[in-house]
Write a structure and sequence with these properties.
Number of helices: 15
Structural class: alpha+beta
Pfam families: Exo_endo_phos_2 (PF14529)
Protein name: Endonuclease/exonuclease/phosphatase domain-containing protein
Oligomer: single chain
GO biological process, one term: DNA biosynthetic process
Strand order of the largest sheet: 2-1-10-9
Helix content: 40-55%
């Protein structure tokens, strides 16, 4: 299986607005999955996934089962306050494995490239020694470059179990508009954390990449051999899965990330000017032209800030003008995305998942009713052309797929290309009285109810996704049942549940009407 990695960017934004603006573009250009930030200018709004502390001085992100601690220890902390912060970090991280500690401790120690070890650095080394973590920083390239000089104060520590899965740790030369440099590295996910395509139950394809002509050509050439209903269904769906592999890219493949809305060529050029001016300023330290180079760098930074502000203002005006022309267009979608609550991730702790499943789903009891004898085949009509069309046309394009991962767009294309094959398979299922086992499997997603404690199994709402092909067979069966139950010899007129065009309100009105008639003596 292909190794799956998440790319991480670690940066102190120095409470700078332009630095936070630039990081939005940087994560797109570097294809960053997780940004671990400190001293941010402001929290991001939905739909961005952003978790920060109460003081908005550090952002903490949890991804793929790896607890991440982002710590910012400002220089203003006294030594006693710094020791208290370290104690809190140790208490929080103790017992967790693997763990990643990404920090700007403002601490100096020769272990990470400082000229000397100061009290803060010594206290930090003593505290982290109890956690069995290792330093990821390599080399002596400074992570902070300011007017007062250079230093290595942005650090990354990883537990022993995670250390060998972190690679490509480096101090990036990308311009950040902060005194701190960006640190970029990758984390190799364990097999049970990966987001790749699994043999069963975790397949994903991107429906947007579907090559319709190629898909139709491949799937239309398939031949389903006669056999049992289970075997024919397995052969049919396996062929569609192989066709999806050949005509679509994986749903987890990295997509091209569009730049932020206000990014333009002028801003990109201003950023390049800043990089050149910054390097000139650094090379001029201690030389006669140091003051000139510093002023040039300050001018370049000022031009970049002004360019970003002007572009953001222009984009805002364009958004307002578009709102006047199209009330329900992009401006409406933008506002609604900000008003939505942040997405909550399903629980991943095995013990909690097991308890939630046992609480939310009843135990399977022995069969109470025997299986009725199967009718002779000639008594069960074939699946008609219009019958199948009616069933598969009700499939919603944007609905989530089941365990097979086949997008509904692809399934509908498969039915259209292999109409007779689907009719044969569905007819076989009906005549054998068999609902295939692979279509009974469900993909379970546990959604946390708003305001409920995360550790309680009853706090979750279960969503069970079935394979859409099985739903098409269900609709054919329902259509046949309704033709009988709604006929002259069907259900009683007083039966309201599970019937079309009959609601609970209708049942209540019937009861009230009967009661009023009885009271009036009619």
């Amino acid at each position: 299986m292909t190794e799956q990695r998440i790319r991480v960017l670690q940066l102190n934004l120095n409470h700078c607005e332009s630095a936070q603006d630039l990081v939005l573009q940087t994560v797109r250009e570097l294809k960053v999955d997780v940004a671990i930030l400190s001293d941010q200018h402001r929290p991001l709004t939905p739909p961005n996934t952003w978790i920060s502390d109460a003081d908005n001085q550090a952002a903490i992100w949890v991804r793929g089962g790896v607890p991440v601690q982002r710590i910012y220890a400002p220089p203003r902390l006294s030594h006693e306050e710094f020791i208290g912060l370290l104690n809190n970090i140790v208490d929080e991280a103790r017992g967790k494995t693997p763990v990643l500690v990404a920090s700007d401790f403002n601490a100096w120690a020769t272990e990470w490239g400082s000229r000397e070890t100061k009290p803060r650095g010594r206290a930090l080394l003593n505290a982290l020694a109890t956690l069995d973590v290792l330093l990821l920083n390599t080399g002596s390239e400074p992570t902070f470059v300011g007017e007062q000089g250079e230093s290595v104060i942005d650090l990354t520590f990883a537990s022993v179990s995670l250390y060998n899965r972190v690679g490509s740790w480096r101090v990036s030369d990308v311009y950040t508009s902060s005194d701190h440099k960006a640190i970029v590295y990758e984390i190799l996910l364990e097999k049970n954390q990966g987001v790749g395509r699994a043999p069963a139950g975790n397949r994903r394809w991107s429906a947007r990449t579907l090559d319709g002509d190629s898909f139709a050509e491949i799937v239309s050439s398939m031949k389903i051999r006669s056999g049992s209903a289970e075997n024919m269904v397995d052969e049919l769906m396996s062929t569609i899965v192989r066709t999806c592999d050949a005509s679509m890219s994986g749903g987890h493949d990295r997509r091209r990330r569009e730049p932020v809305c206000w990014w333009n060529d002028d801003i990109a050029e201003c950023r390049r000017d800043c990089i050149r001016a910054q390097r000139g300023d650094q090379r001029a330290r201690g030389r006669p032209d140091e003051v000139i180079r510093r002023e040039e760098f300050a001018d370049a930074r000022r031009r970049l800030r002004n360019a970003i502000k002007a572009s953001k203002h222009l984009c805002w005006r364009q958004l307002c003008d578009e709102a006047d022309r199209d009330v329900w267009g992009k401006p409406y979608r933008t506002v609604m995305s900000r008003l939505k609550a942040p997405r909550t991730s399903p629980p991943t702790a095995p013990d909690l998942v097991r308890r939630a499943v046992s609480t939310l789903f009843p135990s399977v009891i022995p069969r109470l009713i025997g299986i009725p004898p199967v009718l002779e085949e000639h008594l069960i009509p074939e699946v008609g052309v219009e019958e199948l069309r009616w069933a598969y046309r009700r499939v919603r394009i944007g609905a989530a797929p089941g365990p097979d991962g086949i997008p509904n767009t692809a399934l509908k294309a498969a039915v259209e290309a292999c109409f007779d094959s689907f009719r044969r398979v569905f007819k076989k299922c009906l005549r054998e009285g068999c609902f295939p086992a692979r279509w009974k499997r469900q993909r379970l997603v546990l959604m946390l109810k708003p305001g409920k404690p995360v550790a309680e199994p009853s706090s979750y709402r279960p969503l069970c996704m079935l394979d859409t092909a099985g739903k098409v067979l269900e609709r054919i069966m329902v259509g046949r049942l309704e033709a009988h139950t709604e006929g002259p010899a069907g259900l009683a007129d007083s039966q309201f549940g599970f019937r079309k065009r009959r609601s609970t309100v209708d049942a209540i009105q019937t009861v009230l009407s009967t009661a009023l008639s009885a009271i009036s003596g009619k």
